[in-house]
Specification:
Distance between the termini: 14 Å
Radius of gyration: 28 Å
Helix content: 40-55%
Number of domains: 5
GO molecular function, one term: DNA binding
InterPro entries: Chromosome_partition/occlusion (IPR050336), ParB/RepB/Spo0J (IPR004437), ParB/Sulfiredoxin_sf (IPR036086), ParB_N (IPR003115)
Strand order of the largest sheet: 1-5-3-4-2
Number of helices: 24
Strand content: 5-15%
Protein name: ParB/RepB/Spo0J family partition protein
Pfam families: ParB_N
GO biological process, one term: chromosome segregation
Number of strands: 11
Shape: globular
C-alpha cells in the first residue's frame, strides 16, 4: 500500500466497496470535509479509467458534493493505493485505527505535527504514525505561517478553511492588512478565492501555463501546499514575458507560411462551433486565445463560420447555383422533419449493423473530425518545465510519432502542416469518404495512430501497454540533463548511482552530497570522464515502473 494524492475526477466508486449498506447518507461528512478536507485516506486500486474506491465510498460522495458547491477546483484527495495481495479490510481497519489518533481540529493537528518535528521526527514518520500523506503533514505545518489573530478567527469558526489556506500564502504584513479590513465593519475583506486573487495582485496565474523559459522570470513565486501549483507573484512581469513568447510563436507560424494570425482579446472564449477547419490554401488562419489565468492556445487552420458561409455562397454563385430565398417557407414543418429524420436514422442504424468495414471507417471519421456525440483529443503532453519539453521533442519516440503523423495525413489527403487529431468541426463527410477509399490495412494504421495520440499521460494503462508491447526504453531514451536535474534527493541518488555505476562506486560516495552523486551518474550515462554505461534505464522509466525506495511518487502501475 502506498499513499498518494489523486484528483477527484480520477476516482470512481467500486462495486467491491467494503461497505455494502448504509452509505447513502453523507450529511455528517459533508461539513467536516468542507472545513477540514479528507483526513482518512480512501482505499483505492488502479483501473483502466483511473482508480476505483474499495473503501471510502461515503467520503468520495461527500467530496463530490463539496466540490459541486464551490467555484474552485477540489484539491486532490489522499488515497491509499492497494497493491497485489493487499487485504482491503485489514488496510481499512489499520487506517481507521491510525486516523483515530489524529486531532480533529486543523490547529491541533498543526501543533501535534510541529511538536513531533521539534523532536526530530521526519515528515514521513509523522505521516506513517497517523495514517495520512506527507502532503497533509506539510499542509498543516504551513499553518505556522499564520499570525495568532488569524488562528483565533479560525478557532472561532469566523473564517473557513478556504480562507485559512489562502492566508498561508500571505506574508505577515499582508495578513495584518487583511485582518484590519476584516475587522472594519465598513469594509468587506476578501475571502476564499477572492482572497487568493487579492494576495496575488488580482490574477491567479500558475507557473505551469508559462510558455517562456522559467529562468526569464526573476520575480517571486508563491507556492500553494494545498494545491499542486505555484503562482507568479508579479502578474505584470508574467504577461510581459508571456506576450513576448506569443510574438515569437506567431513569427514561427509566419515562417511556416501562415500569413493570417488573429490574437483574440484576452478572456475571449473559443467556441469551436463558430469556426470551420481550413487549410492554408483555403484561407485558413491561426487564432490565438488567452485566458485571464495566463493560458495560451493556438488554434491552427480555421476560418470563422460566417466567413466560410460567405466563401461558399460566392463559390455557389460562380458555379451557377441558385441561392435559396431566406424568406421562403420550408417544405416540412419542424415536427415533420423530426419524424422523417428519426425513421431514416433508425433504418440506417439497422443496416449499419451488418457492415463492419463501413462502421470501422465511420468510427475513424468520428474520431478524427468529431461530431455531436464524439470528442476524442490528442493528449496535450504538457510539460511542467521547458527542459522537459525540449527533451521530449528531441526523443526517438517523438520523432517516430511525428513521421507517422505525416504519413497518416497523406493517406487522409489532409494538409501536411495540420494535425490528425484535433480536427473537430472539420468536414466529417470528407474524412469518411477518404477512409472509404482506403484498404483495411491503411484504415487500421490510421486508427492505430489516433489511439496512440489519445492515450492519456500518467495512467496505469500506459504501464500495462508498455509491458504488453515489451517496450524497450533503452532504444527510445537516453539519460539527459533534463532528467538528472530533476532528481535532487540523496536517498534516491545513492541507489541510482549503484544501479548505473555499481556497488563499489556507490560505497565510495555514500557520504557525498547530492550534487556530486548526480555528476557521477551523468558521467556514467554520457561517458564523459567515465566508461559509458550503454542502455541504462532507471526503473521509473521501465515497464513495469519501480522505485528505488518505498516512498512512492512513481508512475502508476497496473
Amino acid at each position: 500500500m502506498k499513499l498518494h494524492h489523486i484528483d477527484l475526477t480520477n476516482l470512481k466508486p467500486s462495486p467491491l466497496n467494503v461497505r455494502k449498506h448504509g452509505g447513502e447518507d453523507v450529511s455528517d461528512l459533508v461539513p467536516l470535509i468542507r472545513k477540514l478536507g479528507v483526513l482518512q485516506p480512501l482505499l483505492v486500486r488502479p483501473n483502466c479509467e483511473g482508480f476505483e474506491v474499495i473503501a471510502g465510498g461515503r467520503r468520495l460522495k461527500a467530496c463530490q458534493i463539496v466540490a459541486a458547491e464551490g467555484d474552485e477546483s477540489f484539491p486532490p484527495v489522499p488515497c491509499a493505493v492497494m497493491e497485489d495481495g493487499d487485504d482491503a479490510a485489514a488496510i481499512e481497519a489499520s487506517l481507521a485505527e491510525n486516523i483515530a489518533r489524529l486531532p480533529m481540529d486543523e490547529i491541533d493537528q498543526y501543533q501535534a505535527f510541529a511538536a513531533l518535528v521539534k523532536e526530530g521526527r521526519t515528515l514521513s514518520d509523522i505521516a506513517d504514525q497517523f495514517g495520512v500523506t506527507e502532503r497533509l503533514v506539510k499542509q498543516r505545518l504551513a499553518i505556522a505561517n499564520l499570525i495568532p489573530q488569524v488562528l483565533t478567527l479560525l478557532r472561532k469558526d469566523e473564517i473557513g478553511g478556504d480562507t485559512m489556506r489562502a492566508l498561508t500564502l500571505a506574508t505577515k504584513a499582508q495578513q495584518k492588512t487583511w485582518l484590519k479590513r476584516f475587522r472594519d465593519p465598513g469594509d468587506r475583506a476578501p475571502q476564499g478565492r477572492q482572497l487568493r486573487q487579492w494576495l496575488l495582485g488580482g490574477e491567479q496565474i500558475a507557473t505551469s501555463v508559462a510558455i517562456f523559459p522559467p529562468e526569464a522570470y526573476t520575480g517571486a513565486i508563491v507556492t500553494d501546499l494545498f494545491g499542486e501549483e505555484a503562482y507568479f507573484a508579479d502578474p505584470e512581469a508574467f504577461w510581459s514575458l508571456q506576450m513576448a513568447a506569443v510574438a515569437e510563436k506567431i513569427e514561427a507560424y509566419r515562417q511556416r507560411g501562415w500569413s493570417d494570425i488573429v490574437v483574440l482579446e484576452k478572456g475571449s472564449y473559443w467556441y469551436g462551433y463558430e469556426y470551420r477547419k481550413a487549410t492554408k490554401k483555403e484561407g485558413g488562419k491561426v487564432f490565438v486565445t488567452l485566458t485571464h489565468s495566463g493560458e495560451v492556445t493556438f488554434h491552427e487552420g480555421f476560418v470563422t463560420e460566417k466567413e466560410a458561409r460567405r466563401k461558399q455562397a460566392v463559390a455557389d454563385r460562380s458555379d451557377g447555383i441558385e441561392i435559396e430565398d431566406k424568406a421562403s417557407r420550408p417544405e416540412l414543418t419542424k415536427a415533420a422533419l423530426n419524424y422523417v429524420d428519426l425513421h431514416r436514422h433508425a433504418a440506417v442504424r439497422a443496416a449499419l449493423l451488418n457492415e463492419g468495414g463501413i462502421a470501422l471507417r465511420l468510427m475513424g471519421a468520428h474520431t478524427i473530425a468529431g461530431s455531436n456525440h464524439w470528442r476524442v483529443e490528442a493528449d496535450p503532453c504538457r510539460a511542467d518545465k521547458h527542459e522537459t519539453e525540449a527533451s521530449l521533442s528531441s526523443s526517438e519516440a517523438t520523432t517516430a510519432v511525428a513521421q507517422e503523423e505525416r504519413a497518416v495525413l497523406a493517406l487522409l489527403e489532409l494538409d501536411e502542416d495540420g494535425a490528425v487529431m484535433g480536427n473537430r468541426h472539420a468536414d466529417i463527410g470528407a474524412v469518411f469518404q477518404a477512409l472509404l477509399g482506403l484498404e483495411d490495412g491503411d484504415v487500421l494504421r490510421i486508427l492505430t495512430f489516433v489511439m496512440a495520440q489519445s492515450l492519456s499521460v500518467g495512467t496505469a494503462l500506459v504501464d500495462t501497454l508498455g509491458s504488453l508491447l515489451s517496450v524497450d526504453m533503452g532504444a527510445m531514451w537516453q539519460a539527459d540533463d533534463a532528467f538528472l536535474g530533476l532528481i535532487r534527493d540523496r536517498q534516491t541518488l545513492l541507489p541510482m548511482l549503484e544501479d548505473i555505476g555499481g556497488k563499489a562506486v556507490a560505497e565510495v560516495h555514500k557520504a557525498s552530497p547530492a550534487k556530486v552523486l548526480r555528476s557521477i551518474i551523468r558521467q556514467c550515462a554520457t561517458g564523459d570522464g567515465r566508461e559509458k554505461v550503454e542502455g541504462w534505464v532507471p526503473p521509473y522509466l521501465a515497464f513495469p515502473a519501480k522505485g528505488y525506495t518505498e516512498r512512492g511518487g512513481i508512475p502508476q502501475t497496473a
